[in-house]
Design a protein that fits this description.
Blueprint (H helix, E strand, L loop, with lengths): L1 E5 L6 E5 L5 E3 L3 H30 L4 H22 L4 H4 L1 H13 L6 E4 L2 E6 L4 E2 L1 H20 L1 H4 L2 H22 L2 H17 L4 H21 L10 H10 L12 H13 L24 H34 L3 H25 L17 H19 L2 E3 L1
Antiparallel strand pairs: 1-2, 3-7, 4-5, 5-6
Helix pairs in contact: 1-2, 1-12, 2-14, 4-5, 4-7, 5-7, 5-8, 5-13, 7-8, 8-13, 11-12, 12-13, 13-14
């Protein structure tokens, strides 16, 4: 756009070209950088927590770190094309992605199913093995986002429609729980779908029912904590008995050993910790120190201060995702980001709650930090989906 302006020094009229309301492409580098920082910090913390076990078990102190970096490489190899491609293509193939994710769970029943720690939760394809529950999380996010965007906000406010949409989530969560006995993943999947529908504008009946169910579940959990006689009925109830009195389950490094040692690690770290690499509890005392219980080692080495810093990094990451969701070009993109946001948020909260014994042990890893190739790969792919949405945001200058 050409405009007539006056040169202040000479008073002469000049013609200048000025662009107004130019729409520029946007990319959330803040989210990318905080993710990279968490990943790099995770490598350091993982090496510190796992070096002793890796040296004794595999004669290589960096064994778990190398595996984690390898999983990162696979994840990034998929993440980059996901960022570059238009995320709206996922909407076109939503049904295939969702059905394929459920199909992978059914593969548990075939000879491809691999048993670990008394439960079949893995698919072994010779060259690679993975947990189908992680694929279901992505399938539920994409399918739910597509249907929510198709229905529109006004229709979503109707309670009946919300429950019809939520049945997609419940099917995935139920299949994962029934076929793999993976309660923690089922809870996370159910939580992802609920958060997406509520954020999309669910009516008061759906929101109220989910809220009452959540509060009722927490209250029921603490009531069961005072009923250890139920421990004989099911191993789920036994976990509650262990949660209440872990000291009663210490014999032979029993189920109470892990939570108690984790608390010892947290308590001994104090405010500023013993220093990176100086944990004593990681020397064979805390089971799964490099996986589900890594937060206890973080507290021991970096103290409460370091633990709070880690939490603040996740808070910043979640905040950036909220910004992307609020400015997404369409509702489908917004709901995808909300789904990933919900996944990471729920998993962080559950992991910290388990380590600090606020809830019974559910076997949930700390995103991007705990050791675990399958979880890490699919979390990285989810980050690619979020960054793909951010790349299509238009900003006005």
């Amino acid at each position: 756009m050409e405009q007539k302006e006056y040169e202040p020094a000479t008073g002469e009229e000049v013609t200048v070209k000025r662009k107004r309301n130019k729409r520029d492409g946007y990319f959330d580098y803040s989210l990318l950088f905080v993710w990279i920082f968490i990943m790099l910090l995770g490598y350091v913390l993982l090496y510190s927590a796992s070096s002793y076990t890796a040296l004794n078990k595999y004669n290589d102190s960096a064994y778990f770190l190398k595996k984690q970096i390898q999983a990162t490489a696979f994840g990034v190899a998929v993440m980059i094309p996901v960022i570059l491609l238009d995320y709206r293509l996922l909407k076109k193939y939503k049904t295939f992605i969702y059905c394929f994710s459920l199909f992978t769970v059914l593969l548990i029943l075939t000879p491809l199913g691999k048993e670990a720690n008394g439960a079949k939760r893995w698919i072994n394809l010779k060259l690679v093995q993975f947990q189908p529950a992680e694929i279901v999380k992505i399938g539920v996010i994409i399918m739910t986002a597509a249907i929510l965007s198709k229905c529109g906000q006004q229709a979503i406010k109707k309670g009946k429609l919300c429950w019809q949409i939520y049945s997609i989530t419940l099917l995935g969560a139920g299949l994962v729980y029934v076929l793999t006995s993976n309660l923690s993943s089922a809870i996370i999947i159910a939580g992802i779908g609920a958060v997406m529908i509520i954020v999309a504008g669910a009516g008061k009946w759906f929101t109220g029912t989910i809220s009452v169910g959540l509060v009722g579940g927490i209250i029921g959990l603490y009531i069961l904590r005072n009923m250890p006689q139920l421990a004989s009925l099911s191993f789920r109830f036994e976990r509650i008995a262990v949660w209440k009195n872990p000291e009663n389950f210490l014999q032979g490094r029993g189920k109470g050993f892990q939570p108690l040692q984790g608390l010892y690690a947290i308590g001994s770290g104090g405010i500023f910790g013993k220093g990176l690499g100086n944990s004593a509890q990681k020397l064979g005392f805390v089971p799964e120190a490099n996986n589900d219980m890594i937060f206890s080692i973080i507290c021991e080495e970096l103290g409460i201060f370091g633990a709070i810093c880690i939490i603040l990094l996740f808070v910043f990451m979640i905040r950036r995702m909220r910004v992307i969701a609020s400015n997404a070009p369409d509702m489908f993109g917004s709901m995808i980001v909300v789904g990933v946001l919900a996944h990471i948020s729920i998993q962080v909260v559950l992991n910290i709650a388990v380590v600090t014994t606020l809830i019974p042990n559910t076997g949930v890893s700390l995103p991007f930090i705990s050791y675990g190739g399958t979880s890490l790969m699919f979390l990285i792919i989810e980050m690619g989906m979020v960054l793909s949405v951010s790349r299509r945001i238009k900003r006005i200058r």
